[in-house]
Amino acid sequence: MTKTIKQTLDCTKVGEQITINGWVRTQRNQQDLSFVNVFDGSLTNPIQVVVNSDLENYDLVTTLTSGCSVSFTGVLVESPAKGQDLEIKAESFTLIGGVEDAGTYPMPAKRLTPEHLREHAHLRPRSNITGSVARVRQTVSKALHDFFEEEGFLWCSTPLLTASDCEGAGEMFQVTTLNLEDTPKRENGKVDYSKDFFGKQTNLTVSGQLNAETYASALTKVYTFGPTFRAENSHTSRHLAEFWMVEPEVAFADMNDAISLSERMLKYVIKRVLKTRKEDMDFFNSFVDKTCLKRLNDFVDSDFVVCDYTKAIEILKESGVPFENKVEWGIDLSSEHERFLAEQYYKSPVAVTNYPKAIKSFYMRDNEDGKTVAAFDILAPQIGEIIGGSQREERFDKLIEKMEENGLNPEDYSWYLDLRRYGTVPHSGFGLGLERLVSYITGVSNIRDVIPFPRAQGKIDF
User: What is the pTM of this model?
Assistant: First the structure.
């Protein structure tokens, strides 16, 4: 198998012959020389190939444009140029694939707007920023798996197709094999899902949490990591219809245990990125968010502050800040409220706890006051909420009561209730949106720019 440029450089010494394959980032001619910058995604910066005019097909080299796929063989030498240690002195060259029309090539070697890159999501991996995002995203994903393995967790693969609504909000995508132009109906005029593939109404999952709880009830520490789907009518820079979530569930754990776990996890991942993706992070710090590195180092050096929701409301009311969204007990904190708490008031990551029962999901454990639940959100400076979690309601009768209060039929969740019938235990967990974490780490403000093919209302290209 062909090695990447990084792999090849790692095993090649100065003065030795080297062959690289990749795409042209830039090409410029100067007297009897041509300088070609070639990338293949394995490094943040392209490697420069210096081509002398006596090369057999030198004329072809001079016509190269951004996007051409090429192969060069030459000698690895130390570079006299500023900003690079090594370059290749070409001995042979092959044009693998040309660019049909350089003038209309969507990925020219210049700074492109996020909107332009989204319109060409199939080509945007060739841009500097998308390549760096992809490498950081991979490192974040790997670090998450490593963290949970070191913490004694088992990875549990949960289904994407489900008959349950974890959040109870009804914002789910339906899946069916029925003919939508001739849907079978029952006597009451409603769709007869018994004729569908699974025999009942089926949806794409909004969360793997409920399924993960079944495994935590036997294996103690588990986590899920996969795509989730929300049919939300939202057009903000913080929401996607399809995104990836990591969701740990821990038996014999309360809300404070989950908060502590989330702090260890976030710091572990960020430290890994800072250590292993230095060039990419330098790129983000230079061209995307000049506070990026300081912000991340401050994050890992800070102790998380725990703030009760009721206290948070008091802080917001007394701040004197004219928030766009009204501040009163019972509201779900908006992004501006979250960022004020993390950025301006505490100046550190914050765990807001004990939210009003009325604005949280049915599975969250009721507190003794009868008004709040043992739920928490982790708020980070610049981005706001990055994690949402809770202690789960482990009491059988209380869980049925909460289901009915939320308009859910307990019979539809009989399997979930079995976990409370047979050896119930206190347990807790949380959900972390991968894209939101990658956005926070890189400083890329719109999460549509940190997932390969963003899915949002009205957008399902590619």
Answer: 0.94
